[in-house]
Amino acid sequence: MPYTNDTPTPNTDKTLWWKILLGMALGIFLGYLLSPTGGQIVSETNATIFGEWIALPGVIFLGLLKMIVIPLVITSVILGVTDSGSLSFLKSMGMKIVPYFIATTFIAISIGILIVSAVNPAQYMNNAYVQDVMQSSDMPFAVFDSLTVPQRIENMMPVNFTQASLDKNMLQIVIFSILLGIVMLTLPRDTTKVFHDLCSFGQAASMKVIEWAMALAPYAVFGLICNVTIQMGIETIAGVGAYMACVLLGLAGMFIIYMLIVTLFTRFNVLGFLRGIRNAQIFAFSTSSSAATMPFSLKAAEENLKIDSKVSRFIIPLGATINMDGTALYQAAAALFLCNLFNVELSNIEIFILMLTTVGASIGTPATPGVGIIILATILAGIGVPPEGIAIILGVDRLLDMARTTLNVTGDLVATAVMERFSKG
Ligand code: ASP
Fold this sequence. Notes:
This protein has 425 residues and is mainly α. It contains 19 helices and no strands. It has one domain: Orthogonal Bundle (Proton glutamate symport protein). About 1% of the residues have low confidence.
């Protein structure tokens, strides 16, 4: 007999979308006025101090989200597995969803690589600026590793759960949680009830924290964007404009593919589907965290799209942590852009290896704000690009993070709709 568990969802403010967009626009405007290379209405020192203060609500907002990510992921994955009701259901879902996730990730990466190859945004970059950033950079991004495939698989084993939490190794945490959920399904209900209730509490408590954090979202976005604009200057942002446009175009391309998948493989029409998932997309955009958006994705799937909760509660927590097509597309596009910038020539085989590495990297990227770019450093190290190159694209990462997280969450909801159809055979 499956557990039944009413997933609590945070309350949502219907006007949040507009407030966040307004926050973004005002943040860029004020940042430009204060920036030492823009309006210069205050001195450079004062602008820096002001930027730090105005970013404070954003820092608190991100801190709250990061704080709950691990408990939220663990409890949601465990509850997702136990709520699915049976091992045979899980097995059949798992056999379908894993190839689906890998296939869509490959499509996303191919789009990123095609667009950057066609446009070559590196040709629009100002060389003096690149030299300048590279010289002044002291990025803490030296995350080199050159592991073999068996070593990487060995690294996925959660041999020490505490270590996995300290390292924020989401893949190990997800594997551990899936195993624990499966163990619970095989044990008598009396033995597992207390732990199941504890997980329900952990999930509900995490969602409460998200609800509180969301009240800060428009101010957080305003302050963070304002601070980035003060620090980077509008010209710098414009300087990497072609690269940003490529990533955004790629994300839009993948979005169109998703809508095709919705039309061909689900029972929804595109407009109805988009109406149902709108709120989850808004939250993804404003939190830049697929994990923090999970409660809203569940709500969208179950309440708006009326998808069977057995499917959504398994696919959404899993998808939020390992299915990141937006992140994969972005990582591949950024890696190729930096290769072009530093004149690193890649052969076809090397591009294929880049694609494989990016699939793995996107799976291992924690579903929290701004980490896609850190994981990018490992990809760069593998293809001979100085990881310091990240400094060049760091300034615009917040904006791209918002966009790619929105696509990540859309991808999870599309996957849920597809799996609902195929779970019925
Ligand atoms: N912020 C992204 C997410 O949570 C991960 C990334 O940085 O790409 O989905």
